[in-house]
Amino acid sequence: MNINLCVQCDECSRKTNCRVGMSNRDVQPLKFSCKGCGSVISLDFNVRGANTLDNRAIEAILAGKGPRDVRVNQGVSHKVSGATEVPIEHEFDPALDFVDLHLDFPVVFGEYVMGFTPFMQASQRAGAEATQFHRHRLHLINEHYKKYPQVTKLIAMFSKGFFGPFRETARKRFKVETKSNNLEDINATLYTVISRHVLPFTLPDDNQQLVRGYSTLVMRLAQSSRPGLVAFLQELFDTGFLASLQRDCLKIYGPILDAELPLRPALFLDLDPSYAEGETAMRVSSQDFDEYREVYKDMAEVLSRQLVLVAGINNLLKRGDHNAFSERKTKAGKNVAPKSLQDYADVSLGNKLSDLDDPWIEVDPAALDNELRNAIAHNKMDYDEISQSITYYPKLEGMERETRRQIQLLDYMRRMLVLFRQVHRLHHLVKCLNYALLLEPMAGLIKRDEKST
């Protein structure tokens, strides 16, 4: 179902024609920036029974009802902020600005073409089957998004050690019972809730395959290189690295769940074979870059720490010692490889892969944009709300900013999604090693002082 309306900016009085494609989300906050003055204009839709809206709208049209009757009678209401709605006489005036809006699909601003809605454009690029799969994932988000703040609260209870309220919240809010007060059972409850709610943002079958693969790997190391694995786990325990890394990993889920609106069209890009970053200025209909600009940087920092585990296991597999890195020599013949895993932890993210010789796990190169991370960290970015263009400056160039990169907000959200998936995959490794510290036979081989027990 699509709704056409015209709005006049409260700041500069410029008019914009809007075609709004209805999502199956009951509350639909949409935004765009006025081309005349850059002011943000919001269209907030409320839809009763959103998951059956299309069928009810078709029935109303077949019954001969007009467009406004269809909208009102099917339980759709809306509020405009930053502008005033003005009547449309008959058809859109082609002399006015035009925007397509849809929460679930990338949109392209330009000229109005009747019937060529964001949904139809997406279906044309990806095919009906892929589009239906996209809507299925969004259906899962629509079912759960109101619980996302509660998921974040549950994670906070776990991280702060409030296990009594944690168990009660998991039982009442998420219908998940915790078997006992043992930490391994509390962990099991935590990850059951997280997996259920982040499922739509991950790739199909990613989670189960990874868990099986990591578990098999640890068991293989326990058989073939037990002293080396015990030494590795002992250092993770003694330094508190694994416990603090688990807390860091858990911090990524709140921001990702909060970003479910602008991530919706980014999810569709999984299925769009024509998508190539920067080639088409496709946009997001819920534009809030400032809210999410730090999320990428924070997740990149977590990935940098996760690679310490990857490196330790890589060294175990190849040399039987988690501290033993392969030599990496400069042209002058100097070995610049880290001398230990402690040293590797201090290597910058941009150089960490250089010390993973033929690593046992593939790290998605799209998740390792160190230039973008550095630009965010040093606030070397500009954002144009009207075009949704992000310009960042990746080089150290003194007072000048000659070297620049430009991406769209949609491209940024896509990169954020890819990075989240990589961090989430490696979080499974954190979880696996944590269970190795908690469960026998490996747990009995770790020396613990009285305070830690």
What does the model show?
- The protein is an alpha+beta fold and 453 residues long.
- The chain has two domains: 2-102, no CATH class; 143-445, no CATH class.
- It is 48% helix and 13% strand.
- It has 17 helices and ten strands.
- It has helices spanning 53-62, 67-73, 118-126, 128-144, 148-159, 163-174, 183-198, 206-224, 226-238, 241-250, 253-258, 260-268, 289-319, 341-345, 349-352, 370-377, 409-438, and strands at residues 2-9, 15-21, 27-33, 40-47, 76-81, 83-86, 97-102, 381-384, 389-392, 405-408.
- The protein has a four-stranded mixed beta sheet with strand order 6-1-2-7, with no helix packed on it. The chain has a three-stranded antiparallel beta sheet with strand order 3-4-5.
- Strand 3 and strand 4 form a beta hairpin.
- The longest helix is centred in the C-terminal third of the chain and has 31 residues, at 289-319.
- It is globular and about 80 Å long.
- The chain starts with a strand and ends in a 15-residue tail after the last helix.
- The model has no long low-confidence stretch (mean pLDDT 89).
Question: Would you kindly provide a brief summary of this structure?
Answer:
The protein is an alpha+beta fold and 453 residues long. The chain has a 4-stranded mixed beta sheet with strand order 6-1-2-7, with no helix packed on it. Strands 3-4-5 form a 3-stranded antiparallel beta sheet. A 3-stranded antiparallel beta sheet has the order 8-9-10.
